[in-house]
Amino acid sequence: MATPEIIGSMRSTYTRTACMVCQEKGIEYVLTERPLHAPEILAIHPFGKMPVLRHGDVELFESKAIATYLDRSFPAPFVFPSDPHLAALTEQWVSLVNTVIDRTLIRTYLFAYIAPKTTDGSPDRAAIEATMPAVREQIGVLDKAVARTGYLVGEQFTFADINLLPILYRVRQAPEGAEVLAAATHLTRYYDRHAARPSFERTTPPAGPPGRARSS
Question: I need a surface site. Which of 21, 122, 181, 188 has the fewest CB within 10 A?
Fold first, then answer.
């Protein structure tokens, strides 16, 4: 079978999730580091966003679609549960994180540091302060979600966790985000536990801001 090729930047949280799926499943893969809108990415994603996948004749974009394909194409362990209820809960948390939490924590809060709209390029303090109530609220939701079992879904590590962990990694790099996360004791315990997984350690991005690609 051909070796899957993931094209994108490991600095992108969504590229990292695709690579983590391969690591969790023991899939031999190739990561081709390319920036947003690179020709190799535009050849697959109509808007040039990352990651994209090439596997033999298969070409896919959107990290959730890539993860689903990899999980179904390669043997266990599986990151998407077979139980209908647990599968739906996985979809639920992936959807919430991608449509709401990523937009707040990464695209609004963190980007006020790494891509500020200020004239001198300094952190956008107004944007940071304005989004902090939502940051605290959403971290609180996640803290409550993992309190009972230490997972987002049931008592197993799923793609819902894979999808969230790179976001938490990035938020911890900014001062207010680190402070809010430290106060969320259940979520901190959850992060510390799963950040020790080989799939997470082996996909640590190089220094620098996250990619500006938006996928889901």
Answer: 122
